[in-house]
Amino acid sequence: MLDGVLTPAAGDAEAGPAVALTVRGLTKSFGSVHAVKSVDLTVHAGKFFGIVGPNGAGKTTTLSMITGLLRPDSGAIEVRGAEVWAGRRARTDGMGVLPDRLRLFDRLTGAQLLHYAGSLRGLDRATIAHRSRDLAIAFGLTASLSRPVSDYSVGMTKKIALASAMIHAPRLLVLDEPFESVDPVSTAAIIRILRRFAAAGGTVVLSSHSMDLIERVCDEVAIIAAGSVLASGPMREVLGGMSLEDRFVELAGGAGAVEGMEWLQSFSG
């Protein structure tokens, strides 16, 4: 049903490169705050790559630079060998992007939003209609396409936003907190669709606060804290026999954060 959307576009019948995304020496500062400090990442094609870190770690800033939403101070970003920031404007043709706290044109209906997303990517009207229908069926949105997006639930909004990011059959999906506030049923449906996308040769980069979900879904992972990569690579190698949560706490700290707070056990009254 979704072959035309989930199969990466144009030229994927040929053997693609082993590496879908390369990030080298990426930095970004806001005044005296160094949000991202010389980040290096390698994401292999056809994989789920998870990024985890505490609040303020630099995850969203890193993803914003990768997707062309924020110009880096220094460093290089390559998608399938093509430099993203080679010129004055970022090259993001091969990406589908779901930013954190994305604001949609929610006065449009679901169908109108998908048509708008397809038009921006240069698709013709017939292709947009065909792919919109397939995506609506896959995401369970068929009965809601005629309703304004402002009437959608949080889960439905995430699904229509993800469908908009996928309508042009990108090679790389970059998703910032795609499951935040999404119910378990919708989360499971989204994961099934993303697995099909990866099985067809696409690559998924996602950030999430859910350690269990990242550990369960992703093939590769990077742990980021204070703007730096503490560990990155295949999930099994990064974990070293630990759970992702335990490995994260070991690297990023936090295990001793409640030490010295014995007063909490001395109840007043």
From TrEMBL:
GO terms for molecular function: ATP binding; ATP hydrolysis activity. It is found in: Cell membrane. This is ABC transporter ATP-binding protein. Residues 21-251 form the ABC transporter domain. GO terms for biological process: response to antibiotic. Keywords: Antibiotic resistance, ATP-binding, Nucleotide-binding, Transport. InterPro entries: AAA+_ATPase (IPR003593), ABC_transporter-like_ATP-bd (IPR003439), ABC_transporter_ATP-binding (IPR050763), P-loop_NTPase (IPR027417). It holds the Pfam family ABC_tran. It is a peripheral membrane protein. SMART domains: AAA (SM00382). One of its GO terms (cellular component) is plasma membrane.
